[in-house]
């Protein structure tokens, strides 16, 4: 219903996020991770968050810092354990963070399903494994499937490359990853972009995320990321 | 029978030799990544990376490094002419939908029925992580495993039943190892087949059978003829 809003600062962009919110964060490792919005969320102070991301933070920046500060109650991700995921590792071992481990393709499809209004879906992924334990299964045409439910969110923080004046987005290379599904799945989608271009400057055939999914856009100068990715 | 067990590079070259011309291929993290170095010029193979790209090129060096362009192991890579980018949902739909011809995966254990265990060592204090392993295992038209046939302490990794947490059921069709190439899987009624040894390297089929403690079919002559 509402048109995309353009704000001057990341602080304004994240202001609506409340304690206890479920927040989707785009990115695969640091590629496509909206670090400026996460920094603003840290300053904002919201806590008791449920985070949806492929990973559980890298190094000391962005999502890793949010976890280090104890703001994350639960995380849904496919691959938390990395060589530089020490803040998650410490929080997990201390029992301070709850983990729902989701196979990567199921994570993507469950987020997609939320944005697409799908109630649940049957997927072959995970059948017969511990990650499907207790889940409903069904044999269809001789193949076994597991019933998986959508993942909804209050807010999505997404990094894209460019936005136009109505919030249409294009991404850059493999930094696209979860952005398009998260933008559609969350009730409120906040996007950081390197560049805002006039409406009409993005070829309609090349739009990846239509502006209908985008609530707030903030421009972040590429120098913000220097030495941080 | 070749004279000696294969080195990692020889094994990668052996896997590369079996990838049909023009295939769409996903190479798992670790040992399978080596296969790309052995695809011959003009192989027509297109590499898929599950974080959202077809037409992945070699690792990026120097000025080529772009933090927005990484592979599934989060290593900076390059794009080849004809490359395409897509979301993770599209990438796994491509995989799950059976559009990828071959997936080469590493493994902790494979059963004779083609069950795969490659995501968890089952250690109680370990932090679990699965990534795309379960999706890759069941999605490709052919899932091959590339691994050493025995652990460092000498236990077989090709087993009657997996003891570690499973990644997928009946999903592996072939195992490439330093000692042998072996077909595994299930028959039409879903029963595990007797593994068929297609080729050995520095070991006889009888010896393999003994060391693995499994009944094996010697298919090495069929393959050579």
What features would you describe in this structure?
The complex is a heterodimer of chains A (229) and B (225). Chain A is of the alpha/beta class and 229 residues long. Chain A has one domain: Glutaconate Coenzyme A-transferase, CATH 3.40.1080.10. Chain A is built from six helices and 14 strands. Chain A has an eight-stranded parallel β-sheet, sandwiched between helices. A three-stranded antiparallel β-sheet of chain A has the order 6-8-7. In chain A, strand 2, helix 2 (35-44) and strand 3 form a beta-alpha-beta unit. In chain A, helix 5 (104-116) packs across helix 6 (179-185). The mean pLDDT of chain A is 96. With 225 residues, chain B is an alpha/beta fold. Chain B has one domain: Glutaconate Coenzyme A-transferase (3-Layer(aba) Sandwich). Chain B contains five helices and 13 strands. In chain B, strands 4-3-2-1-5-8-10-11-12-13 form a ten-stranded mixed β-sheet. In chain B, a hairpin with a 4-residue loop joins strand 6 and strand 7 (116-117). In chain B, helix 2 packs parallel to helix 3. The longest helix of chain B is centred in the first third of the chain and has 11 residues, at 8-18. Chains A and B meet through helix 4, helix 5 and helix 6 of A and helix 2 and helix 3 of B.
Short description:
The complex is a heterodimer of chains A (229) and B (225). With 229 residues, chain A is an alpha/beta fold.
Explain the layout of strands and helices.
The complex is a heterodimer of chains A (229) and B (225).
Chain A: E1 5-7, H1 10-14, E2 22-25, H2 35-44, E3 49-52, H3 63-68, E4 72-77, H4 86-93, E5 98-101, H5 104-116, E6 121-123, E7 137-140, E8 143-148, E9 153-159, E10 162-163, E11 169-170, H6 179-185, E12 186-193, E13 195-196, E14 216-219
Parallel strand pairs in A: 1-14, 2-3, 2-9, 3-4, 4-5, 9-12, 10-13, 12-14
Antiparallel strand pairs in A: 6-8, 7-8, 10-11
Helix pairs in contact in A: 5-6
Chain B: H1 8-18, E1 24-27, E2 46-49, E3 53-59, E4 77-85, H2 88-96, E5 102-105, E6 109-111, E7 116-117, H3 133-139, E8 142-146, E9 158-159, E10 172-176, E11 180-183, E12 196-200, H4 205-212, E13 217-218, H5 220-224
Parallel strand pairs in B: 1-2, 1-5, 5-8, 6-9, 8-10, 12-13
Antiparallel strand pairs in B: 2-3, 3-4, 6-7, 10-11, 11-12
């Amino acid at each position: 219903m509402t048109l995309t809003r353009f704000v001057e600062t990341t602080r304004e962009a994240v202001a609506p996020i409340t304690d206890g919110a479920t927040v989707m964060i785009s990115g695969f490792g640091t590629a496509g991770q909206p670090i400026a919005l996460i920094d603003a969320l840290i300053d904002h102070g919201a806590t008791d968050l449920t985070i949806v991301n492929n990973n559980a933070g890298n190094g000391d920046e962005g999502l890793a810092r949010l976890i280090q500060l104890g703001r994350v109650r639960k995380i849904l991700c496919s691959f938390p354990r990395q060589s530089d995921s020490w803040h998650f590792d410490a929080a997990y071992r201390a029992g301070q963070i709850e983990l729902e481990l989701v196979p990567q393709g199921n994570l993507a499809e469950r987020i997609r399903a939320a944005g697409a209004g799908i109630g649940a879906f049957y997927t072959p992924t995970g059948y017969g494994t511990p990650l499907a334990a207790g889940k409903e299964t069904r044999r269809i045409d001789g193949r076994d499937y597991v019933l998986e439910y959508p993942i909804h969110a209050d807010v999505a923080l997404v990094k894209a490359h460019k936005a136009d004046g109505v919030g249409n987005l294009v991404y850059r290379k493999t930094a696209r990853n979860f952005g398009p599904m998260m933008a559609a799945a969350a009730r409120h989608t906040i996007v950081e972009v390197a560049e805002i271009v006039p409406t009409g400057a993005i070829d309609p055939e090349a739009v990846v995320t239509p502006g209908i999914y985008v609530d707030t856009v903030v421009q972040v100068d590429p120098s913000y990321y220097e030495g941080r990715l | 029978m070749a004279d000696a067990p294969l080195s990692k590079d020889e094994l990668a070259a052996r896997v590369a030799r079996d990838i049909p011309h023009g295939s769409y291929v996903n190479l798992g993290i670790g040992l399978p990544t080596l296969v790309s170095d052995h695809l011959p010029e003009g192989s027509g193979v297109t590499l898929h990376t599950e974080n959202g790209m077809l037409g992945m090129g070699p690792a990026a060096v120097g000025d080529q490094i772009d933090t927005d362009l990484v592979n599934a192991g989060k290593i900076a890579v390059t794009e080849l002419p004809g490359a395409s980018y897509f979301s993770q949902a599209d990438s796994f739909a491509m995989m799950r939908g059976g559009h990828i011809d071959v997936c080469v995966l590493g493994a902790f254990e494979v059963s004779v029925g083609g069950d795969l265990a490659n995501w968890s060592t089952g250690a109680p204090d370990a932090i679990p992580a699965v990534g795309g392993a379960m999706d890759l295992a069941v999605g490709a038209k052919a899932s091959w495993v590339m691994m050493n046939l025995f652990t460092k302490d000498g236990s077989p990794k090709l087993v009657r039943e997996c003891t570690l947490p499973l990644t997928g059921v009946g999903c592996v069709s072939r195992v490439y190892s330093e000692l042998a190439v072996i077909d595994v899987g299930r028959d039409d009624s879903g029963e595990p087949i007797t593994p068929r040894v297609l080729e050995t390297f520095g070991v006889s089929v009888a010896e393999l059978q003994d060391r693995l403690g499994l009944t094996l079919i010697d298919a090495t002559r069929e393959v050579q003829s």
